[in-house]
Amino acid sequence: MQILTPASYLTAQENRSGVFQDATLDQTVLEIISQVRNQGDQALFRYTEQFDQVKLDSLVVTEAEINEARQQMSDRFIQALKQAKENISRFHKAQVEQSWFINDENGNMLGQKITPLEKVGVYVPGGKAAYPSTVLMNVLPAKLAGVKSITVVTPPQSDGTVNPYVLAAAYEAGVDYIYKVGGAQAIAALAYGTSTIEKVAKIVGPGNAYVARAKKWVFGDVAIDMIAGPSEICIVADETANPRYAAADLLSQAEHDERAKAICITTSKQLAEAIQVEIEKQLASLERNTIIKKSLSDHGKIIIADSLEEAFALANTIAPEHLQLMVKNPAENVHFVKNAGAIFLGPYSPEPLGDYFAGPNHTLPTNGSAIFSSPLGVYDFVKKSSIIHYTKSSLLQASEQIVTLAEAEGLTAHANAINVRKGANDA
Q1: By Cβ atoms counted within 10 A, which residue in 2, 103, 329, 333 is the most buried?
Q2: The pTM is what?
Q3: Which one is the CATH code of 230-372: 3.40.1170.60, 3.30.420.10, 3.40.50.720, 3.40.50.1980?
Q4: What DSSP designation does 266 have?
Q5: Binding site, residues?
Q6: What dotted CATH number matches 21-224?
């Protein structure tokens, strides 16, 4: 990992839009979407054979396959899964919103009606790792919101089955439908529907560059959660931080994939050097060290700031997906944080705690989008309708002002819709 100053880091910072400006990627994704829209299941089978090297007889994951997967699970895994489900559910229950109404003294009523989305699609990645945690984090908030139908799509393994850990998590979370399809073609199927897969109202869940770009292209025909980029961690650390812990946490994020970003901003040169030593020491025993080495070589940075104020200013500019505060009295410093997907306080709140177990959602804004967006939550699976009810007398009392505003905008039909009610005998 390079050791830099804040100024040199900002100068060398990558263009965050990166992959999303790839014209070849766009062309490929748009062609896939078009083929799925026109040919439906036929295109899904063809692309699964082309991209996953699997020839399927059916896209549907059967109840027998789910039961077989569950039988493969150890009691230890099932117990951990159930506890994670309980923690995630407890946290997200606090996000559930209720419809509300206000009645004034004139008999008028205003309010907001909360309605859950009817059908949601969840993309669960395959590829370099299995992600049962992604199932829980995306499905449980939707369930709590009241979504009636939840579909999971995920790429098949080389033998044509779905990862058993994913199936076990889907069963535990209460998923309604599971299909063996991944990539941009899965996003297109959820967005537009095929004879097997029903169209949904919203698509959530992370994926590779093709999945992310497909979500961007179908947005508008269907809702999406966010355009997720490579995973990120930023640690703000002072001289009190434990270099072993900091190194381990940076490594944990770098193992996601080669484009993952692991950054530490510290006020201590001694700590920076100690972290480098620890990274080399711990890396040797990690299974995914090839991926980690590439990630750290291309995107890993240790930045030495002159003060904590400068460190937090840079962290807010980066707006990381995960931000760890490994400083003295972290809770007293959290107010400095303006932009972060999730904030982890102290040496015993490592990022994997949030990934799997604590309860807050691990589907987080990446690529700097924490400047304007939030973690996935129950609020992502509902829509809100405004309620307006005025009495005749209240409308007539406000009519002159409404007409004045409408005429100022040149919208005389709007004014007319008010004027025709003046003097009317109906209630």
Answers
A1: 333
A2: 0.91
A3: 3.40.50.1980
A4: E
A5: 123, 185, 208, 231, 253, 256, 322, 355, 409, 414
A6: 3.40.50.1980
